Amino acid sequence: MDVSSLLDGLNDKQREAVGAPLSNMLVLAGAGSGKTRVLTHRIAWLMQVEQQSPYSILAVTFTNKAAAEMRERVENVVGSNMGRMWIGTFHGLAHRLLRTHYQDANLPQTFQIIDSDDQVRLIKRILKTLNLDEKQYPPRQAAHYINGKKDQGLRPKHIDAGGFPIEQNLLNIYKIYQESCDRAGLVDFAEILLRAHELWLNKPHLLAHYQERFKHILVDEFQDTNAIQYAWIRVLAGNSANVMIVGDDDQSIYGWRGAQIENLHKFLSDFPGAETIRLEQNYRSTANILNASNDLIANNPDRLGKKLWTEDKDGEPISVYCAFNEMDEARFIVGRIIDWQDKGGRLSDCAILYRSNAQSRVLEEAFLHKGLPYRIYGGLRFFERQEIKDAMGYMRLINNRDDDAAFERIVNTPTRGIGDRTVEIIRNTARQHQLTLWQACLRLLEEKVLAGRAANAVRNFIDLIITLKTDTEDMLLYRMTDSVIDRSGLRAMYEAEKGEKAQARIENLNELVTAARSFEMPEELEDMGELNAFLSHAALEAGEGQADEFTDAVQLMTLHSAKGLEFPMVFMSGVEEGIFPSKMALEEGDRLDEERRLCYVGMTRAMQKLYISYAESRRMYGREDYASPSRFIGEIPEKYVEQIRLRAQVSPSISQRFPSQASPSFGSGLGTSGPANSTGFTIGQKVKHFKFNEGIVTNFEGTGEKARIQVNFFDFGSKWLLVSLAKLEAC
Ligand code: ATP
Ligand code: MG
User: Fold this and answer.
1) Over the stretch 649-685, which tens digit does the pLDDT of each residue have?
2) Number of helices (H) and strands (E), helices first, in the chain?
3) Which ligand is nearest to the CA of 251?
4) Fewer CB within 10 Å, N side or C side of the chain?
5) In order of start, what are the domains of the chain with their CATH numbers?
6) Nearest residue CA, atom 2 of ligand 1?
7) Taking Cα atoms as reference points, which of 281, 249, 350, 309 lies closest to residue 566?
């Protein structure tokens, strides 16, 4: 490919960045201005024009999906196999490094990654042995403390509790937690990064080797790097590598996880001669969407400040929909998507974004109801499901008997008579003698400490794992997986459970065998054994791309996981005070700016059409709440917005309440003027009660005598009433 075509499809500023002389560079620009495109083309440029080997390039992206996309895009541009180039996430690359140099990193070859659930389980165990109350030291908070310290590069020995008892206890938890992990050969996500950084610091010969190798380092989404990631890059780059980072301070959304926007400034002072290139043209969104986003983010203080413009036409206004409740909101969204599909649109071009994962359930129900395929991107993924983790627990223990997290998970799943008390004795023995749980079992059996039945049960469990290992050692991975699922008793357990849920779990277990069958050893992991590689793959990838990748499906995801992506049609749902901005952000105050950046990220995902919706009442986490529209909606100038409220067909009184917004044309698309019911009322209708006065009908349930109606009374809030007794009048 010749040079000119490498620069095709780029504007002047983008060309300047792609074709810059070898040096350090910061590309600072707003959403949709082509930062990722520049990064990709730069890699191609380095290879094609600067004649650099792919071997000398290290590219860091934010998700595995983005990494795969980048690899593909570069391959498209240069038309060759990029096998030897390191492209991945910080975690993926650091993990690869630890795998290769496990001895230098002081890890057993079979070390495994634990996720946040495993982490919490381990911490619970530690709290017990320390006699600390879970209420005073919630395990998740302790995990947050530990991860936070690791993200800052701090080991227990670096921390001074300053004589504060709570801090001292947290520090103790961290210390013992780390000792347990080390004994069991386990690393958590933060540990992967910390160890990879320590590898640089403690093993100069390794550092020298990689510094010699990686002459070009490129990082996307740099605004979301944390201290340890920054340090890792900084040390690796040394004084010789050329580092290109791209980022946008307005899209920094991981502050709560330790990301530091300041790293953008730090880069400029730490990397000599770094030049800043700004991109100002947006190629993604219509003018309405872009201008609205710009105006919203202008409410934040302390911005580096960027101007973004587009040649695109105004496009449609942003539609804001006020729903009665979360079900009405879901029906509205489904209605718009069906319209889109009827006009020939693809489902995968529609994305629904929400603030927290729990919001997806109602949407899922609505999609199931209409038979529309959907995919949850980054939600509860295949490898995170209970039954899969159970099966993997067995495989992990077969792989490494000292894996305490796996041991804890499966020791009594399915139940085999190893009760809580016995497990407690095992834990105490482990703690007392600095053993792993497996070793503690052996010791207890040898010393005949356990009572007869418990001892038998423990012996059977140990025997099971040992025979499973010997019997499956020479099997193909998928046969082994199948065998483990059978002989562990997991399949029988779920078969006995019956019901749809259990059936789904069995299907998932079967799918695991399929996954093992289609598992391909990544080249770089070839020396580590198939089982081990498969376990790492499961832990790392956690099924980012879901099983039915090839079906055209609506994409559901949190706002956080939408970063870097784009869709023709975007719905932002649940845009209510207390949800978005979140309650926590409202309470803590200083997090409001980050929520606004998240809103900016969400809005700028949209290419052609953006819907924003909120519900007046919402049932979530088993509670019903009333909310007002998010302040962010108010921050979007009205000229870019079209308010959609209730259908004119619902009742005349509704159009009285919102005279300017009632839109008759909306009736058909929604088709949701309340589910069919026998009460004679419809959702959205204004009614009058002899005691509670006026309100709006928001829901129904039951039929006949038992029919109940939910009314949101203007003065008394929401109430469920028996229709037969309530004597409601339409008004
Ligand atoms: P984000 O901040 O959201 O990550 P970004 O700055 O990385 O956005 P890209 O994803 O690289 O932006 O580009 C946004 C869209 O604009 C993509 O569809 C990309 O292909 C397109 N694009 C970028 N530059 C140009 C250009 N010069 N001409 C035409 N299209 C472009
Ligand atoms: Mg990008």
Assistant:
1) 333 333 333 333 333 333 333 333 334 456 778 777 8
2) 30, 21
3) 1
4) C
5) 3-102+193-281 (3.40.50.300), 112-184 (1.10.10.160), 296-381+549-644 (3.40.50.300), 382-541 (1.10.486.10), 673-730 (2.40.10)
6) 31
7) 350
